[in-house]
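Chapter summary example.
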Amino acid sequence: MKLHFFKYQGCGNDFILIDNRQAAISLTKEQIASLCHRRFGIGADGLMLLENAPGFDFRMVYFNSDGAESTMCGNGGRCIVAFAHHLGIVHDEAKFIAVDGAHTGKILEQNKVCLGMQDVAAIELYEDHALLDTGSPHYVQWVDSLVDFPVVEHGRSIRYDQAFAPGGTNVNFAKVVDDKTLEVRTYERGVEDETMSCGTGVTAVAIASSGAAVGQFSKTIHTPGGILSVDFFKKQKDAAILVHLTGAALYVFEGDLDLASLV
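The structure predicted for these 263 residues follows.
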């Protein structure tokens, strides 16, 4: 079977995208993992199917690089909006459905996409870390320096901690630069490694960094793959609404692959 695919990246978080509006593509977990393999496949942090959805411009179906269908991916959401624009499905604005519910997306200048995220209903704040779900579960640990920080070693330990069993959690290590600027490195479950950036992760860090304060916030987050911004409003200390994630979403290349050739 021949598969036509597209490759996009958002701040180094890279994805394989497939137009499945005809519902002709059905991939196994093993095939998805092979497609995402960085030596024997196309190479990506995840794979997305763009499908039809009544009442929406499209449906986003997201799989981690291990082949398992996963929770929401923020950078993936921004990339699939750019993909839908490329396909001519949407112009400047999009409304789509994902595993965690409805989302909006807006195409901005300089290849940027602003993604409307889900409200965050609970923010657990502790002395050196925070827990919250921004469409995917996240653990945020505050550190003094990210230079040479053992992200994979510490991230894997927390990700597999029994406290988060059976699904595990994504783990972010964050440094506060100033009131509006943060630095973040993330260990992603499903990828089981550090990624260049994580959209739901930087969203979690931005919201957690506001502590118990309330009001309107705008945060700039530096990741190894680039810069993202997160805007949100807190009417109360342990919840956030009107959450938006903004950053570049770029077409990389496209091609055709014979699924029978996968290792």
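To summarize the output: Residues 123-244 form a domain with the Diaminopimelate Epimerase; Chain A, domain 1 fold (CATH 3.10.310.10).
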